[in-house]
Amino acid sequence: MKLVIAIVHDEDAYEVIDNLNDKGFQVTKLATTGGFLKAGNTTLMIGVEKEKVEDVLEIIRNVCKTRKTVISAPSPMMGTTGVYVPSPMEITIGGATVFVLDVDRFEKV
Amino acid sequence: MKLVIAIVHDEDAYEVIDNLNDKGFQVTKLATTGGFLKAGNTTLMIGVEKEKVEDVLEIIRNVCKTRKTVISAPSPMMGTTGVYVPSPMEITIGGATVFVLDVDRFEKV
Amino acid sequence: MKLVIAIVHDEDAYEVIDNLNDKGFQVTKLATTGGFLKAGNTTLMIGVEKEKVEDVLEIIRNVCKTRKTVISAPSPMMGTTGVYVPSPMEITIGGATVFVLDVDRFEKV
Ligand code: NI
Ligand code: NI
Ligand code: NI
């Protein structure tokens, strides 16, 4: 038995929990407030048989992988009409930190 | 030294912490929001000497064991007066998931 | 790789996270509600290379060490003017509980 502790970004939490549940993995979601400048993280705990750790990691990787997205960012330039023109900006989102711990003993009461 | 991580139902949390404290075990209670469809769980962390793990587990089992209870559930049938008649319904409550982890090093500052 | 789980008092949390970040350690802060009579604790998780565990512990010790402080406590005696006179009282604050766990596997997604 292993305990997977995954720290994921809030925006990925719903999908990763949903995908894990769909594959039969029980997930406990801890309310994480994040370190300073790191708000927006969610910590998940998943107890899993040794043979299935890779399946859990694969789901986390698929959902949480670092990827680029384009957002409309405020532009320092104004259009000729004086209307504020947002310029698209590419940012990196996602990412997760995963610890797998050995479980000495596991019990369902 | 071992670290016991117990995920218990909210309705059992007060009593299990109280019983653990009575026996001299320190408990840290994490705010758990639960996975989806699993709201209402509380995660407890208890650092404990190896020889006392069984005592901790025994307390958790006693308080949190799955048991049946009877609640008044809405009935699909109405009484002749048209008044809503709740019918008693047996449901299962309780249960806990417990992980015992090895502690490499323990320190009280 | 090790996972350091530190339970510190709320009043020390900001400084210990700040000091850990300054030294390049990533900290995940869990919202801890504390056991009963133990409200005011914060749980921190820090993933760290084996060789740097002592550095992390040193920072936690420096910030969180038990120390005495003087507060103005309500006094049972009133001054002659009838004005409430607080008398200084020495109390002990700080302290932390630290568990270091072995990490079987670590992954940054
Ligand atoms: Ni991130
Ligand atoms: Ni349950
Ligand atoms: Ni304390």
> Biggest interface pair, residues each?
A-B, 23 and 30 residues
CATH architecture name of the domain at 2-66 and 95-102 in chain A: 2-Layer Sandwich
What is the CATH class designation of the domain at 2-66 and 95-102 in chain A?
Alpha Beta
**What is the topology, as strand order, of the major beta sheet of chain A?**
2-3-1-6
Mean pLDDT of chain A: 85
Multimer state: homotrimer
Helix % of chain A is 10-25%
What is the alpha-carbon Rg of chain A in Å? 19 Å
Specify the structural class of chain A.
alpha+beta
The secondary-structure element order of chain A is EHEEHEEEE
Give start-end ranges of low-pLDDT stretches of chain A. none
Give the overall shape of chain A.
elongated
Q: Strand percentage of chain A, roughly?
A: 35-45%
How many helices of chain A?
2
Instruction: Give the CATH topology of the domain at 2-66 and 95-102 in chain A.
Output: Alpha-Beta Plaits
Major sheet description of chain A:
4 strands, antiparallel
Can you put this structure into words, describing what you see?
The structure is a homotrimer of 109-residue chains. The first copy, chain A, is α+β, with helices and mostly antiparallel strands and 109 residues long. The first copy, chain A, is 23% helix and 40% strand. Chain A has a domain of 73 residues: Alpha-Beta Plaits, CATH 3.30.70.120. In chain A, the strands form 2 sheets. Chain A has a 4-stranded antiparallel β-sheet. Chain A has a two-stranded antiparallel ribbon with strand order 4-5. The first copy, chain A, is elongated and about 70 Å long. The two termini of chain A are 16 Å apart. The mean pLDDT of chain A is 85. Chains in contact: A-B, A-C, B-C. The interface between A and B is medium-sized, with 23 and 30 residues. Strand 7 of chain B pairs antiparallel with strand 6 of chain C, so a sheet runs across the interface. Bound molecules: nickel (II) ion (3 copies). One nickel (II) ion binds next to loops of chain C.
